[in-house]
Amino acid sequence: MKSVFPVFAVALFSASPLQAQTSPDHDHAPPQHWSFEGPLGNFDLAAVQRGYVVYEQVCSSCHGMKHVQFRDLEGMGLDAEAIKSIASGYQIQDGRDLSGVLKYRHGLPDDAFPTPVKPAGVPKGMLPPDQSRLAVVYPGGPDRVYALITGYGPAPEGVAVSPGQFYNRFAQGRRIAMKPPLRDGEVHYADGTPATVEQEARDVTTFLAWVAQPHLVARHRTGVRVIVYLLCLALLLFMLKRRIWSNAE
Ligand code: HEC
After folding, report:
1. How far does the centroid of ligand 1 lie from the alpha carbon of residue 72, in Å?
2. Is 22:78 a contact under the CB 8 Å cutoff?
3. pLDDT of residue 21
4. Which of 58, 178, 198 is the best mutation target for the ligand 1 pocket, counting ligand atoms within 8 Å of the beta carbon and taking the most?
5. What phi-psi label fits residue 46: left (phi over 0), alpha (psi between -120 and 50 degrees) or beta?
6. pLDDT band at 23 (very low <50, low <70, confident <90, very high)
7. pLDDT tens, residue by residue, 172-231
């Protein structure tokens, strides 16, 4: 018990799928402090909600979330009415009419976030990736999502950037076809938080991490319970051993 426990604990605490990686053809994203990291990590639901506002008003015009239903927003503290009204604000593709033209209807809580068919401002043939699991599958995780959406800047001298591309030192190849999505004051936060680019980026990254790992907090809680249980068991076995062997000398 004594020798396996530390190994087990290290394995449990270090296995986070949100961990950063790096690659030579983009800059390494500076590590950020996120409330949801670490074995005791927790989501700040106010930040998740603000992040949703950024997703809805900015990112969703290009990026869909086909694995996330409107109903899933319950987990960030919204009630059924709020979810209904968010859902009905989206147009969902619903077959074709007799002349073959696509039909649309208002969204319902059971629908998934739709993928925009021809997003404006996106070069032809370029598909903005789905954001359902982006914070987990994007190499570099939340740190790099944050770095990328705040990391635009003028290209260094001698570096050519073709039309329709933007210089971004955190993008693969340091160029990306997504125009800078955020500006100061791009959204209005109901809780009065000033909407700076950094704040919007932090919040939307938190939202994307939450959406990608809705059970993270529950998993952490289970992990903590397992550790406490094992510690108690270890103590009990230790006491038992002392007792059994106390007369042996
Ligand atoms: C005008 C459309 C548009 C908007 C709005 C937009 N994006 Fe993008 N995004 C794109 C396109 C197009 C790409 C693919 C670019 C490429 O591969 O060069 C992309 C790529 C990305 C990537 C990189 C994924 C990868 O695999 O390289 C991330 C991360 C990302 N977007 C996050 C966001 C976030 C967060 C928002 C909202 C704050 C947002 N985007 C808003 C069009 C958009």
Report:
1. 22
2. no
3. 45
4. 178
5. alpha
6. low
7. 999 999 999 999 999 999 999 999 999 999 999 999 999 998 777 778 888 889 999 999
Task: Report pLDDT for 117.
Answer: 86
pTM for the model stands at: 0.83
The DSSP bridge partners found for residue 113 are 65
Closest CA to 201 of 176, 175, 183: 183
Q: Is 63 annotated as a binding residue?
A: yes
The residue behind tokens 């949703």 is: 52
The dihedral sign for the CA sequence 56, 211, 112, 84: negative
Spell out which residues line ligand 1, taking CB within 6 angstroms. Answer: 54, 58-59, 61-63, 119, 121-122, 126, 128-129, 134, 138, 145, 148-149, 172, 176-179, 181-182, 204
C-alpha 81 to ligand 1 mean position (Å): 30
CA 63 to centroid of ligand 1, rounded, Å: 7
CA distances from 222 to 39, 194, 206 (A): 10, 36, 22
Nearest protein Cα to ligand 1, atom 38? 59
Q: Which two tokens stand for residue 105?
A: 């209807």
List CB contacts of 126: < 8 A, sequence separation 6 or more: 177
Q: Which domains does the chain have, with CATH numbers?
A: 4-67+128-245 (1.10.760.10), 68-114 (no CATH)
pLDDT of the residue at 38:
83
